[in-house]
Amino acid sequence: MLVVDDHPLLREAIAARLAQMGAGTVHEAASVAEARARATATGPCDLAILDLGLPDGSGIDLVTELRSQGWPRIVVLASSDDPYAVRSAFQAGAQAYLLKSASPMVVTDGVRRVLDGGVYADPSVAPVLATGTRVPGTDNTPRELSAREVEVLQLVADGQSNKEIGEELSLSALTVKSHLSRIGRKLGTGDRAQMVALAMRAGVIR
């Protein structure tokens, strides 16, 4: 795992928490440049946790870079609940947006959900995400979703993986994937975080 933050104490605390959660090697970086060097040296890790306010560049750009390099899971841990930052982080490819002011329990829960294949937004920023994300060129009408598709999407919002969703609904993982493909076509996005945001915005899921 990789932790990117320019505050040494916070970085060490996050690394220690990840180790308690069972992480193997935890790499640390204090800037965009250090993060790029670490990423190049290690290749994609299981998870990256990064701040947006880095001293030498944009954390959003770093999210985009890591995703393009094949990093599967990225969690943003930021001090700002600015709506633009929240939406930009998810649009860049982050699976979670957590606040530094959150309790260790909330942070741990968010990281666990992402590791399990879900998406997560700090409770105080979730409404921001739900009220502002639209996909250009579509009418974004989640009410066209079937009852089963709504069930699947709610479980995605709850942070469950395709396998877990299948077990809960007595479906194969392949069937769950097919449901998500249909949901994506209806909503105009294949991104799990945006699917959830659009459905929350329409009041289809909680």
Automatic annotation (TrEMBL):
Keywords: DNA-binding, Phosphoprotein, Transcription, Transcription regulation. The keyword Amino-acid biosynthesis does not apply. Residues 1-115 form the Response regulatory domain. GO terms for molecular function: DNA binding. The keyword Translocase does not apply. Residues 138-203 form the HTH luxR-type domain. The modification 4-aspartylphosphate is found at residue 51. One of its GO terms (biological process) is phosphorelay signal transduction system. Gene3D superfamilies: 3.40.50.2300. This is LuxR family transcriptional regulator.
